[in-house]
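Example 3.2
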Amino acid sequence: MSKRTKATQTSVQIIKLKMVRDEKSIHFPKNKIKTPEDAVFILKKFLNAYDREVFCIMTLDTKNQPNAVHIVSCGTLNNTIVHPRETFKLAILSNAASIIACHNHPSGDPSPSSEDIDVTKRLCDAGVILGIELLDHIILGDNNYVSLKAKGLM
């Protein structure tokens, strides 16, 4: 008679994902995003109180109407870690057709760094694969901003 070893059992958890709407909202006087200035109107209000670098996305529907703003990453005084996985996770959960990425430069100078340009290219590539277009990447400074799309950097 051969001895049988007991097979190891594994428990697989069942999970649910839910989006929770914050009590706060930002009033937008237009019905769609047509220019970088339109996006900045919303994103500046969302990121105005941070003293460190924060990367966020605005999700848009098929008519370029904004439906949500999400913080993807909160970093330090001069950088934050951004990965396409976390960025597009929020876009997928929001049923986004496209996104606009944005982050602040606490120094006040919105000039894009080489890292800003590199992460933008990675997000563009990931968006193509997922079918969620990155429309722009906006960097906010003190009372000014840079649109990487307008600068031809994406």
